[in-house]
Amino acid sequence: MVLIVVIFLIILHLTHNIINKKNYSINTCILIILVLLAGLRDSYGADYSSYLEYYNNSISFHQIVATNLESGFESLALIFKSIGFGFNTLLLFVAFLAISLKIRSFNTFSPYPALSLMIYLLMFYVTDDLEQIRGGLAIAITLYSIKYIQNRKIFKYTLMIILAFAFHRSAILFYPVYFLWGFKLTKKSIFLTLVPAVIISRLDVMTLLNSVNTQLIQSNYLHDRISGYIGYDTPSLTGTILLRTTIFVFSFLYLYKNEDSNIFINIYYYGILVLLIFVRFPIISIRGTLYFRYIEAIIVPFLLQSVIPMNLNITISSEKKKDLRVLFSIGKKYIALIFLGVLSVYYVINFMTYMTSQTYFYYNTI
What we know:
Blueprint: H1 2-18, H2 24-39, H3 48-57, H4 61-67, H5 72-83, H6 87-109, H7 113-123, H8 125-131, H9 133-144, H10 146-150, H11 154-167, H12 187-201, H13 205-217, H14 220-229, H15 238-254, H16 259-277, H17 282-288, H18 290-293, H19 296-307, H20 324-357
């Protein structure tokens, strides 16, 4: 019920976007509701007990750093516990950081922030800010760090990635994104990168690595890690690969001349390559590429903006009706609108499936 209220507020917020008015009060209400819902939950989510254990077992910073590379959440837990704040206060703080950074990023990068917020709520909020909150905060930090890519501030960008890494090591996959700035994708560059990625996706990399380790390296650590992947029941990622590829194709065709969206198209495409290359590594291919899936919440509004200017004027004069190029342009817009309509239905079904049956497409495998 609470999330339905939030959806209503986002729709109201979106109407203000359409008429080019900013409404900070609605934005603030949405933030407060989402933070309270995430921070005041009790025993909700598969990882809830693990986070509670982090909080209860936090002893010293030395112990945390010595035993875990992802020391960010445990360090926060120790600080809050030392001050005397309860576990839910910690959850509220993490939720506020993660959700506010995401909303601020949408406001900064998206042409229609309310639409980005809607996509985030339907696709990511429950799993990332109600359940896998370490990953959710890491994603929020990397999303916010894109502004340092645009400003060409590699030192600040590096610090942000290190901070995100402290909460979830998969954030390291986002670091190469800095070097995608200014790069213009072409059909040739897509072909030269996509073909090798598809070939790698078909290889049984884990068995090959296990053979190399057994015969050459002979590392017990690598053996244990590789053995955990061999025979792992990997969920089918065909659906998410097809969906992301389709979104990329539409973005590439319709936003090719839009300089503001170029970096986000590059990031999204890079995420597809990472997904293909690591498709046989479940944790990397599923959790690790979620950082790039979030870019959908920015690309889709850009795509909508490209086919429906805010004046909604896609009519042509009688003198131009015989101009095939104009007719083709209008046809392209209608095709994109149909696709966006289908995509919207998918987002809603994805959300309702979780709300009604608790069988959410757990790691965004679709």
